[in-house]
Amino acid sequence: MTPEEWLADDPDPATRAALQSLVDAATAGDTAAQAELADSFRGPLEFGTAGLRGRMGPGPHRMNRVTVSRAAAGIGAYLLARHEHPTAVIGFDARHNSSRFARDCAEILAGAGVKALVLPRALPTPVLAYAVRALGADAGLMVTASHNPAQDNGLKVYLGDGRQIVPPADAEIALLIAAAGPVALLPRSDDHETLGDDIVDAYVSQAAQVPLPHTPRDVVSLHTAMHGVGSAVLQEAALRAGFPAPFTVEEQRDPDPEFPTVAFPNPEEAGALDLAMAEGRRINVDVIIATDPDADRCALVVGVPHGRPAHADARTPGEWVTLSGDEVGWLLGWWLLRRGGFTGTMAASLVSSTLLQRIAEDAGVPFTTTLTGFKWISRAPDLGYGYEEALGYCVDPRHVADKDGITAALLALELVAALNAEGRTVFDVLDELALRHGVHATRQVSLRLPTPELIASAVDGLRADPPRDLGGMPVQAIVDLADGVDGLPPTDGILLRLPGARVIVRPSGTEPKVKCYLEVVRPVDGAGLAIAREEAEATLERLAAALRDRLSA
Fold first, then answer.
1. Ordered alpha helix ranges (H), 135-253
2. In this structure, are residues 509 and 476 in contact, taking their beta carbons and an 8 Å threshold?
3. Which residues on neighbouring strands pair with residue 140, listed in sequence order?
């Protein structure tokens, strides 16, 4: 498609004007405009197992009303080929253009003959995942870019089981999107329904049942919504579950698509939780909870108690510590087993720590490893709990078959309240797990690259010329994940096995990054827990430095 063809087909005056300005500047010799124009038209934004996600702007390689309308047409064609009278639920977050994109999806689906149900306002992604199952719909569409920067948006797709799409559905939908034709010719209809608050109330009521009735509720907490849509829903769910209302970080409570107080609205990013930590220290809370902009992920920050034994690790009493995604994953899994009544299988993705498997097996509970992403974790047979190191936790899979930052936060509140009642902290539990199963130290190393081609080249270079040693340690085995491993389907990535360590390198599915996932396991012997942790962290540091050097070369 040429810029001229795009201008004729785009229903949005804002992106038409932006494109015309870009064309004019490029024609006048502006090299930056020429590069932007070339990138915007270098091909369609890829539709895959993460749906669509990318920078907003004009052109087929950007998120805009043309891209979204064509995607909705392809999804509608897919549903109509499989269901006589299909229904789709549409949700959206508070990013720029999210509500407009959601209306486009509803109009296009309704025009194609799909019953379109739109959530009543900007809401967390888990509410949409819940609604698909609760309403017996055949699909769900969520307009969100999750924790991406402010200039991005996306479209996440679920099918009737309430799970994100996986192959071959993604490829089949992509072909139908490509065949959709000009947006101006797509039939549209206003015959779609905006749902009432009863579906939100049903989600909140179900979420409030995740903590068990007999467990303690005495906990002082603080929540930051990161300028996203999580605040009101989490507040109501916490109150309905019987917890004291979490304090809030006022500057970040209300939705703001500019995300003005953070460079990246991602709890994993350095500095993103500075405001929350300052407020948490001021109030002296037991736990800080952060949800990302669409509230499907959850981070925890806790203070190191002043009575903590000096032999445990190098953390300073009084220091506020952001727990890693793996640490939260272990703690929530441990608590589900400890409190009783857990049924089903525990699961974690291949890139997550192996400690949850040891915890599950120690308790006699089935465990399975899946490929990266909740589209795979949610498909673990008889799933009872699943997590991924990138702050994603599925604690109520029978109702929300996806990561859910709201229910994870409620489970964390229950855990901290129970430990408060015993005079203990999460650090005591982490110590006990390390003493029983060994220290499992994990870290993620990310390399942001400007184009998908450079990302693919970095991974392919490692595949073609794998290292013989890394960080002073011999590489004992090299596994190309494209060939599959341990019965898992093929995926793009490389697994390196080293003595007492493991490294996985793969391209991110949602961000322009190469991601490396490191785990070092050390038994706790006579030297003690602190020494084992120091040795593991030192090994992680050497591996991380070696990977940065190798991938940036």
1. 169-178, 198-207, 231-240, 250-253
2. no
3. 89, 158
Q: Which residues are catalytic?
A: 146
CATH number belonging to the domain at 3-196, selected among 3.30.1360.70, 3.40.120.10, 3.40.50.2300, 2.40.50.140: 3.40.120.10
CA gap 169, 471 in Å, rounded: 41
Instruction: Return the SS3 of 450.
Output: coil
> 3-class DSSP state for residue 66?
helix
Residue 391 backbone zone (phi > 0: left; psi -120 to 50: alpha; other: beta): left
d(CA 83, CA 351): 36
Q: What CATH topology corresponds to 438-552?
A: TATA-Binding Protein (3.30.310)
Coil, strand, or helix at residue 386?
A: strand
Indicate the pTM of the whole model: 0.95
- The tens-digit pLDDT sequence of the chain (553 residues) is 899 999 999 999 999 999 999 999 999 999 999 999 999 999 999 887 778 999 999 999 999 999 999 999 999 999 999 999 999 999 999 999 999 999 999 999 999 999 999 999 999 999 999 999 999 999 999 999 999 999 999 999 999 999 999 999 999 999 999 999 999 999 999 999 999 999 999 999 999 999 999 999 999 999 999 999 999 999 999 999 999 999 999 999 999 999 999 999 999 998 999 999 999 999 999 999 999 999 999 999 999 887 766 556 667 788 899 999 999 999 999 999 999 999 999 999 999 999 999 999 999 999 999 999 999 999 999 999 999 999 999 999 999 999 999 999 999 999 999 999 999 999 999 999 999 999 999 999 988 877 777 788 888 888 888 899 999 999 999 999 999 888 898 999 999 999 999 999 998 766 778 899 999 999 998 889 999 999 999 999 999 999 998 887 6
346 secondary structure, DSSP code: E
Residue 19: which H helix or E strand, with range? Answer: helix 13-27
